[in-house]
Amino acid sequence: MAAMPFELERPWHLDRQVAIRPEPFGALAYHFGTRRLSFLKSRKLLDVVQALDEQPTALAACRSAGVTDQELPAYHRALETLASSGMVVEHPAAAPVVTKEAERA
Amino acid sequence: MRDAATAPRLVDHFEAGLDAPICLTWELTYACNLACIHCLSSSGRRDPRELTTAECFGVIDELQAMQVFYVNVGGGEPTVRRDFWEILDYATAHDVGVKFSTNGSRITEQAAARVAANDYLDVQISLDGASADVNDAIRGPGSFATAIRALERLAGAGAPSFKISVVITRENMDQLDDFEALADHFGAQLRLTRLRPSGRGADVWDRLHPTQSQQRRLYDWLVERGDKVLTGDSFFHLAAYGEPLAGLNMCGAGRVVCLIDPIGDVYACPFAIHDAFRAGNIRAHGGFQSIWRDSELFTDLRQPQTGGACASCSHFDSCRGGCMAAKFFTGLPLTGPDPECVLGNGESLLSLLPERDVPRPAADHSRRRPVSLCDESPLAGFEVIR
């Protein structure tokens, strides 16, 4: 699946069908709709993902989790990957375009 | 994020164990209406100590609390349990997805509709030949037709995703393309797994496990297909041929994988039903969670592995010594090569040990008589006239 450009300045959230399990290395994320399992490879990425819901934008979620300017490109890429597999989706109010995963779910 | 060069690899974390399994197999019963010659769990007869419905619900409550996202349900033939659907419904209502394996004999149109309607339910139909002759020689007369009928019903019911699950043998290796065509025909996903010398598989392994040249062909075929064909990380010992196959490529026993058997015994993996790999029983105080987190066996399996004789091999990083159960049940040392080591090291070791002491499985529920219709229902074979 081609990765869509991930806009940090927009509101994003975890897909409702995704469950997250914290682990010593970070977390496991499982999408009950697509049956995809993803590994979040750091605790900080877990914090970012969990902050998405309460923060107005993905950038704000990164900031609230303590992601530095230097680290931001890596976290941007990680979020892009999560978005391309439907784990993270744009807030419905902000994005009328649904991803394929969401349609299937 | 840390520098890729200094950060521990994911596989290192996995080898040290996780807070809960990623992939848990739960065999609901040893009862089975078939008697496949390679059955991993030597199934046939129901064990009178089988977990009750209430105990099964208890297991599910624990799995939910531990956030085990899904379980692979099998047996025996799990659908012969009277409370089978009740257990499944309870699991999926408690955030535990279910993928169950069946020979298809009880996939009625109603059952297929049920699978199609439940978002958290997946099914895989076992088929060990792409033709009746090859399949039925392993799984018994009529089993090919039964499986095909189940696949037709699942496709007919519009089930969004179901699988055909094949154990690769010397006999069906030439049918890889046929299996793929069959899966495409039904809109199913193909899953290939490795023949293990576990359970009754030990009796047929010598004559049915793929030859070296077949293994090579299998590897190339799988590499070509990428993640289109599933393998359940079954063939990671083949990674020594070159690039790793899709999956974690490690032995997950007791680290990311385990088995709960029908009587609640917890084993390191589904292929290791033997006292040496039994970590405890969920009926004991502390239940499954304490076994997973604290049992001596699992703690031990999570220690760094030395690799023994294999550690100096240049391929050790890719195959990591292969499958623990395959070594154990062929009588090879756990620190030695996999019996199907692609360099032939396992094979030569086996030939040096013609009189090797091969461990037998802990539990044998094989039938002592031919399978009859009565095994499914006490009234089967009788016509009830009203």
Strands, helices and their partners?
The complex is a heterodimer of chains A (105) and B (386).
Chain A: E1 12-14, E2 18-23, E3 26-31, E4 36-40, H1 43-51, H2 58-64, H3 72-84, E5 88-90, H4 100-104
Antiparallel strand pairs in A: 1-5, 2-3, 3-4
Helix pairs in contact in A: 1-2
Chain B: H1 10-15, E1 23-27, H2 53-65, E2 70-74, H3 84-93, E3 97-102, H4 109-117, E4 121-126, H5 132-139, H6 143-156, E5 162-168, H7 176-186, E6 189-194, H8 201-208, H9 212-225, E7 257-260, E8 265-267, E9 278-281, H10 287-294, H11 296-301, H12 316-319, H13 324-329, H14 345-352
Helix pairs in contact in B: 2-3, 4-6
Question: If you had to describe this structure to a student in words, what would you say it looks like?
Answer:
The complex is a heterodimer of chains A (105) and B (386). Chain A has helices at residues 43-51, 58-64, 72-84, 100-104, and strands at residues 12-14, 18-23, 26-31, 36-40, 88-90. By secondary structure, chain A is of the alpha+beta class. Chain A has a 3-stranded antiparallel beta sheet, with helices on one face. A two-stranded antiparallel sheet of chain A has the order 1-5. The longest helix of chain A is centred in the C-terminal third of the chain and has 13 residues, at 72-84. Chain B has 386 residues and is of the alpha/beta class. Chain B has a 9-stranded mixed beta sheet with strand order 6-5-4-3-2-1-7-8-9. The longest helix of chain B is centred in the middle third of the chain and has 14 residues, at 143-156. Chain B is built from 14 helices and 9 strands. In chain B, helix 4 packs across helix 6. Chain A binds chain B through residues 19, 21-25, 28, 30, 32-33, 35, 37, 39, 41-42, 44-45, 71, 74-75, 78, 104-105, and chain B through 1-2, 7-8, 10, 13, 16, 18-20, 22, 67, 69-70, 95, 97, 119-120, 122, 160-161.
